[in-house]
Each structure stands twice: as structure tokens, then as C-alpha cells.
Specification:
mainly alpha; 6 helices; about 70% helix; about 0% strand; elongated
Length: about 140
């Protein structure tokens, strides 16, 4: 059975590989800029790329929750609690689940925690891709 970290790694790697050509295109168009500029401006200020990243982050939750790694847990609530235990980037903004019932709040916190873990990892992978390309 895969661990949470392995699932996050696999999701992020698949995403980067699936859209690698588009990322490389933007990187190469801005090759004369600093690596920080390429990362923070060229990639994250590009509306198409930014939308693509955020849509993927939101949709990953559903495929993540259906993964075989979680099939042995009895309920979505239990899975969410496990995710919160394993997450490296647990969401702490309680405003995201303010006024929700406890189980719904746990699910919301787990959703944003998975999103945070994936976001952190794709940022790392994009920085690596930029560094490899700029050399």
C-alpha cells in the first residue's frame, strides 16, 4: 500500500510530466530572466498556467480520496483524519471551515491540507525544472 507521501509525490510528478512541454515553453521564453522571475512571474502570472495548476489542485482531491491506499478506512471522515495526521502542510486557516459541523470542518481542513502538500511539491518540481533548463 502506498503511503500518503508517495501518493502526493506520484500526483505531483504526473501533473508536471503531463504539462512539461507547456512549462518548458514558458521557461524557454524567459530564459534570459532570473530563475526567481521565471518561477514567480512567468509561470504564476500566466493566467492559463495558473488556472491549470489551481484546477488540478482542486480536482486532485477527488482522485486522491478514491485511491486504493485509502480503501481500508471505513469512512471519509477517518480518511480525512489520517490525512491530517500525515500531511506536512496542514491547513491552519480556521476561517475556511468556520461555522461548519465538526465532520465537515475536518473534511475541509483535510482538503486544503492535501492541496497545500501538492502545491508545495509542484513548486519544488517546477524550481528543479527551471534550474535544469536554465543551466
Amino acid at each position: 500500500m502506498k503511503t500518503y507521501s508517495e501518493l502526493i509525490e506520484e500526483e505531483a510528478t504526473d501533473f508536471i510530466n503531463e504539462h512539461k512541454e507547456k512549462f518548458l515553453e514558458v521557461i524557454k521564453e524567459n530564459i534570459d530572466r532570473t530563475e526567481d522571475y521565471i518561477f514567480s512571474e512567468a509561470i504564476y502570472q500566466d493566467e492559463d498556467l495558473n488556472s491549470m495548476i489551481h484546477e488540478w489542485l482542486d480536482s486532485s482531491w477527488y482522485s486522491f480520496m478514491r485511491d486504493d491506499a485509502f480503501k481500508d478506512f471505513n469512512t471519509e471522515f477517518t480518511t480525512c483524519a489520517i490525512i491530517l495526521e500525515w500531511s506536512k502542510e496542514v491547513e491552519t486557516d480556521s476561517g475556511l471551515w468556520e461555522n461548519q459541523e465538526p465532520k465537515e470542518a475536518i473534511s475541509t481542513q483535510a482538503f486544503f491540507s492535501v492541496r497545500n502538500d501538492l502545491y508545495r511539491l509542484i513548486e519544488d518540481k517546477l524550481k528543479e525544472l527551471i534550474s535544469e533548463t536554465v543551466k
